[in-house]
Amino acid sequence: MNVTLWSFIGVESASVAAGVVKNPKRNVPIATIGGVLIAAVCYVLSTTAIMGMIPNAALRVSASPFGDAARMALGDTAGAIVSFCAAAGCLGSLGGWTLLAGQTAKAAADDGLFPPIFARVNKAGTPVAGLLIVGVLMTIFQFSSMSPNAAKEFGLVSSVSVIFTLVPYLYTCAALLLLGHGHFGKARPLYLLITFVAFVYCIWAVIGSGAKEVMWSFVTLMVITALYALNYNRIHKNPYPLDAPVKQD
Length: 249
Prior knowledge:
Blueprint: H1 2-8, H2 24-53, H3 56-60, H4 65-74, H5 76-110, H6 128-144, H7 150-179, H8 188-207, H9 211-235
Helix pairs in contact: 1-7, 4-5, 5-6, 7-8, 7-9
């Protein structure tokens, strides 16, 4: 379950870079929906082709399925080239994720949720300090999760990442019900159905994660909640309003 969801993580991040995208109102939805569809088609076609070429027993222990498939079809040279291209694609994806993480931290800092250092930019508008901090934190996390078994390490990192991604998904479902109340019209049953399915899927995905991953994710969320409260008090000097709003007749 987590591996499947992990494969699609990132397509929703087009909204994070909305501040540096031309015509975001048009292009962000296109990138989000189009990214999901293109990724789904590529995953289905590539995995179907590989499963048809490589026996299941060999596929389970393969370290480079695409390279093995190319090696079977076109020879050892083709297999090496495909493996190199796959590694280059991973490095490109890592670079893109690093840049995106810097923009995410900057957006949070602009809203007062992260320390101001993440909002600092150079003359080109790049959050250099945020990128360096995010890069260091990513490196520390990677070293702390190192395992002699690469598959085990990947499973740990992907599971934790998926759990953290599901949290804003759950908030989005709740926001859809709250902000859209009274605005759905005749389409209200459809939106309620979609939201219910999304809620069930998110909860199911969390349950499908390992107990260790869920525990550490929950502990991290608790720490983040405490840091948010401290940061809120630092930014807002006035006392938090405790009086409930009174409805005027």
